[in-house]
TrEMBL record:
<dbReference type="InterPro" id="IPR046335">
    <property type="entry name" value="LacI/GalR-like_sensor"/>
</dbReference>
<keyword id="KW-0238">DNA-binding</keyword>
<keyword id="KW-0678">Repressor</keyword>
<dbReference type="InterPro" id="IPR000843">
    <property type="entry name" value="HTH_LacI"/>
</dbReference>
<dbReference type="Pfam" id="PF13377">
    <property type="entry name" value="Peripla_BP_3"/>
</dbReference>
<dbReference type="GO" id="GO:0003700">
    <property type="term" value="F:DNA-binding transcription factor activity"/>
</dbReference>
<feature type="domain" description="HTH lacI-type">
    <location>
        <begin position="9"/>
        <end position="63"/>
    </location>
</feature>
<protein>
    <submittedName>
        <fullName>Transcriptional regulator, LacI family</fullName>
    </submittedName>
</protein>
<dbReference type="InterPro" id="IPR028082">
    <property type="entry name" value="Peripla_BP_I"/>
</dbReference>
<dbReference type="Pfam" id="PF00356">
    <property type="entry name" value="LacI"/>
</dbReference>
<keyword id="KW-0805">Transcription regulation</keyword>
<keyword id="KW-0804">Transcription</keyword>
<dbReference type="InterPro" id="IPR010982">
    <property type="entry name" value="Lambda_DNA-bd_dom_sf"/>
</dbReference>
<dbReference type="GO" id="GO:0000976">
    <property type="term" value="F:transcription cis-regulatory region binding"/>
</dbReference>
Length: 338
């Protein structure tokens, strides 16, 4: 019995139906000798029952390729790193045939999803789940970057913001800071929530293990901009008990905060700061900025490699994971004393 639904059946659907890996399904359908004959027969039979047609034929004969990749951001105006865009453009140029073009969009602009051969979603918010689910239901090849999604099945690669924030804050406390503050970004973004949670976890763990408690100021919004970071730091420095360490949730805000510190007429004690993302300019601030490195280049390279396989229906390599969380190392510089 074939599947008469207008939705395309993919190798992920077949794998889910049989309870096996998508890699095994891909190998079997591409004639790989690595798959046992009995397994191959089961996969071929399931593919026939589900109405599977190889991707290049289905799209080429039924509707034609548009050779257009959709790149969707949660918000094109705020909280989006330019490195994501640059890295994705370079990887598409390097990994996909030259006749592919890139269409850059906000998730709010999704009237023509069926136009795209494949989609990359750079997700910042849980509000994006409905959009991602629509892509999955439409059987459009999709890779989700930056945030862990609960939508299944979808290839998904994200950053470990929580662990990096926790490690950075713990280091600051071990270095002797006892009066601390947080300048955070937009609460609509998952990265803000994860980084804030890591910061507070480190403080709670320190308080539980040490008799002398910390003084932690209430969080201040910095809007993910240098202007917002400068304003937030000026507000902190105006307090009689201003902090000796400020955890700042991105480098833009940290650069603004450093300006507020450097232009203050009479600081009673030094203030350490740390950023997040490791922008190129972080090396050249005064002092140079201690920050967390975001492996965006590595993550986007994997994302485009995965999308390439989904578009061509090639055999998926063993080194292409279905899910992956990227660790974020701390880059120690001058703005945070060791």
């Amino acid at each position: 019995m074939t599947n008469n639904s207008s939705k395309r059946t993919t190798i992920i659907d077949i794998a889910s139906h049989l309870g096996i890996s998508h890699t095994t399904v891909s190998r079997a359908l591409n004639g790989s000798p690595k798959v046992k004959e009995t397994t191959r027969r089961k996969i071929v039979e399931a593919a026939h029952q589900l109405g599977y047609v190889p991707n290049q034929n289905a799209r080429g004969l039924n509707q034609g390729r548009t050779y257009t990749i959709g790149l969707f951001f949660t918000d094109l105006q705020n909280g989006t790193s330019g490195l994501f865009l640059t890295s994705i453009i370079l990887n598409i140029r390097e990994q996909l045939p030259e006749n592919y073009v890139l269409s850059i969009n906000s998730i709010n602009d999704h009237d023509r999803l069926s136009f795209f051969d494949g989609v990359v979603v750079v997700s910042q918010s849980v509000k994006d789940e409905e959009f991602i689910n629509n892509l999955v239901q439409m059987k459009i090849p999709v890779v989700v970057l930056n945030r862990k999604t609960q939508i299944q099945p979808v290839y998904n690669y994200w950053l470990d913001n929580y662990s990096a924030a926790r490690e950075m804050t713990t280091h600051a406390l071990q270095a002797g800071h006892r009066n601390v503050a947080l300048i955070r970004g937009s609460l609509d973004y998952a990265s803000t929530q994860e980084r804030s949670q890591g910061y507070f976890a480190a403080i709670q763990e320190w308080d539980a293990a040490h008799p002398t408690k910390l003084f932690a100021h209430p969080p201040i919004e910095g809007e993910y901009t240098a202007k917002g970071g400068c304003r937030a730091m000026e507000e902190l420095l105006a307090r009689p008990n201003f902090p000796d360490y400020v955890f700042i949730e991105n480098d833009d805000m940290a650069i603004g905060a450093l300006r507020a510190i450097n232009t203050h007429p009479n600081l009673k004690h030094p203030v350490s700061v740390s950023g997040f993302d490791d922008m190129d300019i972080a090396t050249y601030t005064s002092p140079s900025l201690t920050t967390v490195h975001s492996p965006i280049t590595e993550m986007t390279a994997l994302g485009i490699a995965t999308l390439k396989h989904l578009l061509t229906n090639d055999e998926l390599d063993d080194d292409i994971p279905f899910k992956k969380c990227f660790k974020m190392p701390i880059i120690y510089r001058e703005s945070l004393r060791k």
